[in-house]
Amino acid sequence: MIQFVKKGIAESKRGKPPGTITKYSDKEQKEVEFELIRYNAGTFEQRRLKGAANLPLPDSSEQVNWICIFGHSDIELLNRLSELYGISHLALEDILNPDHRPKLEFFEDHLLVILKMISYDSKGILISEQISIVLGKNFVLAIQEQPGDLFDPIRERLRSSVGRIRSMSADYLAYSLLDVIVDNYFVILEELAEELEDLEMILIKQPEEFEPIDIHDLKMQLFYLRKISWPLREIAHSLQKTESGLVLPPTRLYFSDMYDHAIRVLETTETLREVSVGISELYTSNISLKMNEIMQTLTIISTIFIPLTFIAGVYGMNFEVMPELKWPNGYFGVLGIMAVIAGVMLIFFRRRRWL
Question: Could you give the CA distance from residue 270 to residue 34 in angstroms, rounded to a whole number?
Answer without folding.
Answer: 37
